[in-house]
Design brief:
- The chain has 448 residues and is α/β, with parallel strands linked by helices.
- It has 2 domains: 3-344, Glycosidases (TIM Barrel), CATH 3.20.20.80; 349-430, Sandwich (Immunoglobulin-like).
- Helix content is 28%, strand content 19%.
- The strands form 4 sheets. The chain has an 8-stranded parallel β-sheet, sandwiched between helices.
- α6 (95-104) packs parallel to α13 (325-341).
- The longest helix is centred in the middle third of the chain and has 20 residues, at 178-197.
- It is globular and about 70 Å long.
């Protein structure tokens, strides 16, 4: 391998500085294992999918004060455990989730199968003390219902799993209480194997919370979890399964979590924005949690996709498994927008022109470039860099758009009377296909 082909070492701070970006990737500097890497072809379906729906649901949904409620409020274990006797959504049908995901325009889903409280939503023999939905009031394997309905709807299947489990004192004191920490690790291995082996092909394994004692990071806790061994085991059942880095291994893509806006340049690694359709105060259900503004959510999707990322949008069903009507309405609105404008989102890549924050960004596919304009007034004063391609047509909703190419610059003039939309999309047709930018392989050190 020549020096020019060697992976580049980069810190998270260097990436942010290079891109002048607001992104904040978790779990940088994870353990490396070439055997677990995937090719661009393996990742292609995920890159093309662009839109996914995240679902946080569990015992915490009964209380409606967020998925961290047991820890934040220091609820006694016996009191919290008793909630399993109430977790019995008799009228719940998993099609409610998968139907909404399709209406939203998702091509994949990720369901929380077990959060940090330890309550597993499937028939899990590996669960410590059998703390599962199957063994308690509902008697149901919700992961089985989810995976079957997800495939029935034609979507890729993702499962979220938290290695962290607050029931084990060894989580908080792993070196002082090694037997407890080891028991937690053994549960993790057994449950990940169950999820990867019992429910047919799993497309995404989405980890969260390998960090110990609520300090350090997932990567600094790898000494306990041995994530390379864990993920080699998981891949035995799903050789091309895509995994994020939250287990302490480097992962196949990176995650930016939360409702902060995305700014900066095109991101040179596979990445996903994880955020809530509601306020973001909690990922789990909260009563009267306000739904975010439609225009703002569209802008968030556009800002992510123009920077070559995916959007995983979270919903929090209530204790009965039902998604609040205002949330459904907003997700359907987004779905309507995606059905109208999906050509400029799905199967595209970010670029070829670097975005200008709060003004425009671009995506491309084949010989089409889509200019996503989020501020038409500011865009009118903006000159774009020259495209090294001949533009043979330009349009906005079927109406021709004036384009002038000059050495070093490109000027697009929108027609009069353009609607004040969250995203004004100009479609450019080129004489030839856009040549993909050859990205270098980047490894993050975890250092700042």
């Amino acid at each position: 391998m020549s020096n020019s082909q060697k992976p580049r070492e980069m810190t998270g701070a260097e990436l942010a500085s290079m891109l002048k970006s607001s992104i904040n990737f978790k779990s940088l500097g994870g353990l490396r294992c070439p055997e677990l890497d995937l090719t661009e072809q393996d990742m292609q379906w995920w890159r093309d999918a662009k839109i996914g729906m995240f679902v946080h649901w569990g015992l915490y949904s009964i209380l409606g004060r967020g998925e961290w409620v047991r820890h934040n409020e220091q609820i006694p274990w016996d009191e919290y455990k008793a909630l399993a006797n109430e977790f019995n959504p008799k009228d719940f049908d998993m099609h409610e989730w998968t139907d909404l995901a399709k209406e939203f325009g998702a091509n994949y889903m990720v369901m929380v199968t077990r959060h940090h409280d330890g309550f597993a939503l499937w028939d899990s023999p590996g669960s410590y003390e059998g703390f599962t939905s199957y063994n308690t009031a509902s008697g149901r394997d919700f992961v089985k219902e989810y995976t079957e309905c997800c495939r029935e709807a034609g979507m890729r299947v993702g499962v979220y799993y938290s290695p962290m489990d607050w029931r084990f004192p060894g989580y908080f004191h792993p070196k002082e209480m090694p037997e407890s920490a080891q028991a937690m690790k053994e549960q993790c291995y057994r449950q990940v194997e169950e999820l990867c082996s019992k429910y047919g092909p799993i497309d995404i394994l989405w980890y969260d919370g390998a960090w110990l004692a609520h300090s350090g990071s997932d990567t600094t806790s790898a000494w306990l979890w041995e994530p390379v061994e864990l993920n080699k085991m998981a891949r035995k059942y799903n050789p091309k399964m895509i995994m994020n880095p939250r287990s302490g291994w480097e992962g196949n893509f990176y995650c930016d979590e939360g409702s902060h806006e995305i700014t900066g340049g095109i991101v040179p690694v596979p990445w996903e924005k994880n955020m809530c359709v509601c306020s973001g105060t909690s990922w789990g259900w909260m009563a009267n949690d306000p739904v975010s503004d439609f225009d703002w959510l569209i802008k968030m999707i556009v800002d992510v996709v123009c920077r070559d990322g995916n959007m995983l949008m979270n919903v929090g069903p209530d204790r009965e498994g039902h998604i609040p009507e205002p949330v459904k309405e907003r997700m359907r609105q987004i779905g309507e927008w995606l059905r109208e404008n999906g050509e400029s989102i799905y199967k595209t890549r970010g670029g070829p022109i670097e975005p200008v924050d709060n003004v425009f960004g671009t995506t491309y596919h084949g010989n089409h470039v889509y200019v996503h304009i989020t501020d038409a007034d500011a865009f009118a004063k903006t000159t774009l860099p020259e495209l090294p391609y001949e533009i043979i047509a330009a349009e906005y909703k079927g109406t021709p758009v004036s384009v002038k190419q000059a050495p070093g610059e490109l000027k697009i003039t929108l027609p009069d009377g353009v609607d004040k939309e969250a995203d004004v999309i100009v479609k450019l047709t080129l004489r030839e296909d856009v040549r993909p930018i050859k990205r270098e392989t980047i490894h993050f050190t975890g250092k700042e």
